[in-house]
Amino acid sequence: MIRYALQCDHGHGFEAWFGASADYDDQAARGLVECPLCGSSAVSKQIMSPAVAGTRKTALSADPARMRTLMTQAAREVRSHVEANFDYVGDAFAREARDIHEGRSEKREIYGEASPAEVKKLRDDGVPCAPLPPLPPDPAKAH
I want to staple 5 with a disulfide (CB 3.0 to 4.6 A). Which of 18, 26, 48, 51 is the partner? Predict the structure, then answer.
């Protein structure tokens, strides 16, 4: 197995594992390697330090401010994608999701509002749903 640091044409960095270096080349040439954040298949390998036995990275070695910035950026991009490409159904989310799942409504991507109890019932009944990542408060709007 080989691990590559990859980056899409939108600047999103991520890692992926391949059985061999030729596997990456083959999959990338066929457009099968995609960015997990935006879906772009314009992906390239990045310079990566080799894994050396006996070294260990810990969560403490990561810069917390940088991690917070990256996580906030990813959350904003996910929310932006959903808002641009999904239908907003407001507080009718649970009913609409169930109707789509059971074939009573046209299949489409939706987002909206649901109570924790409604979400639990949807999940218990096998209706796929997931919360949008929360955004931290905007420091410019604080106080």
Answer: 48
Half-sphere exposure of 28 (CA within 13 A, CB side): 18
pLDDT digits (tens, 9 = 90+) for 2-33: 888 899 898 888 888 888 888 888 888 888 88
Gap between the Cα atoms of 73 and 83, Å rounded: 15
Give the H/E segment covering residue 83.
Answer: helix 64-85
How far is 25 from 100, CA to CA, in rounded Å? Answer: 39
**Using CA atoms, how far apart are residues 26 and 12, in angstroms rounded to an integer?**
21
Report the relative pairing of strands 2-8 and 13-18 from DSSP bridges. Answer: antiparallel
Q: Considering the entire predicted model, what is its pTM?
A: 0.52
Q: Is 118 within 8 Å of 94 (Cβ atoms)?
A: yes
Q: How far apart are CA 4 and CA 76, in angstroms?
A: 25
d(CA 136, CA 75) in angstroms, rounded, equals 9
Contact indicator for 114, 94 with CB cutoff of 8 Å: yes
Instruction: Specify whether the CB–CB gap between 72 and 136 falls below 8 A.
Output: yes
